[in-house]
Amino acid sequence: MAKLRSLHQAKGRKEQNLILLEGTHLLQECERLRLEPQLICSTDIWAQRHQYLMQLTPRQIVSPEVLCAMASTENPDGVVSLLAMPSDLTSLPQLDLAANPLLLALDRVQDPGNLGTLLRTSLAAGVDQVWLGGGADPWQPKVLRASAGAVLQLQLKRWPSLVAGITMAKQSGLQVLAAVQRGGRPYWEVDWQLPSVLLLGNEGAGLAAELIDEAQLVTVPHGQEVESLNVAVAAGLILMERNRQTHRALHGRGESLTAEMGP
Predict the structure, then answer these.
(1) Beta bridge partners of 237
(2) If you placed Cys at 4, which of 70, 122, 155, 196 could pair as Cys (CB 3.0 to 4.6 Å)?
(3) Residue 258 has what pLDDT?
(4) Measured distance CA(177)–CA(214) in Å, rounded
(5) In angstroms, what CA-CA distances link 170 with 35, 175, 189, 207, 236?
(6) What is the pLDDT of residue 263?
(7) How far is CA 74 from CA 68, 192, 240, in A?
(8) Can you give the pLDDT at residue 259?
């Protein structure tokens, strides 16, 4: 039990090179992605209902009380599992600029729920890499749950300094865009078909000044009644704009071809 509970903290995860997956959905994601947990601990009732998942790996039946002690949530759904840490967060494959990659760079996003939602949105929007500059640990249980397992599929890199990453991105030919509360271009006026990096900042402090200086500014226009949008909400709108532009380009091209061919 002590081994599992230590995975609630970053130190324990680093020492053991393991992460703690809580709940049925994350285990189902492991099966779908063909990831092999090192251990599954479940209640007997859960095991009887999910026998197909219990074939994945060495397993242990525990009492509901013991499972609660292992989990970080107050009411676990009956199962926790151990998985080797998918990435060391230090290196990533080279980007293919011809494929117009989209990167998300997060400057000190602290809230685990926000980070998990940002990762889930990134996967849905086709983000190729997520760069982390400080902030919450992507392998902590709350982030894993909020991401609905998306973190297990994304390419992640933690930078000691995001400025170095952004400098490298610009030198490689990517456009760098920073989301700010006001004063930037509306996000839909940007050509998201170009290789791009989107910068999003800390929930309270926003983006560091040295990052803003390196970027084109974009904003999500909104009513004056609120000072700013939640970072995950803003990211959803901006990141999905590339999908909208891609769909529009393909749809328009289809209409043109139909018109040229005639009835």
Answers:
(1) none
(2) 70
(3) 45
(4) 9
(5) 35, 6, 20, 18, 24
(6) 52
(7) 7, 42, 34
(8) 46
pLDDT at position 34 is: 92
| Positions in the chain short of pLDDT 70 | 88, 253-263
Give the pLDDT score at 238: 96
Q: Please state the length of the chain.
A: 263
Three-class SS string for the chain? CHHHHHHHCHHHHHHHCEEEEECHHHHHHHHHHCCCCCEEEECHHHHHHCCCHHHCCCEEECCHHHHHHHCCCCCCCCEEEEEECCCCCCCCCCCCHHHCCEEEEEECCCCHHHHHHHHHHHHHHCCCEEEEECCCCCCCHHHHHHCCCHHHCCCEEECCCHHHHHHHHHHCCCEEEEECCCCCEEHHHCCCCCCEEEEECECCCECCHHHHCCCEEEECCCCCCCCCCCHHHHHHHHHHHHHHHHHHHHHHHHHHHHHHHCC
What's the pLDDT at 113? 96
| pLDDT for the residue 97 | 84
Separation between Cα atoms, residue 203 and residue 259, nearest integer Å: 48
Residue 262: predicted pLDDT = 52
Q: What is the pLDDT of residue 8?
A: 94
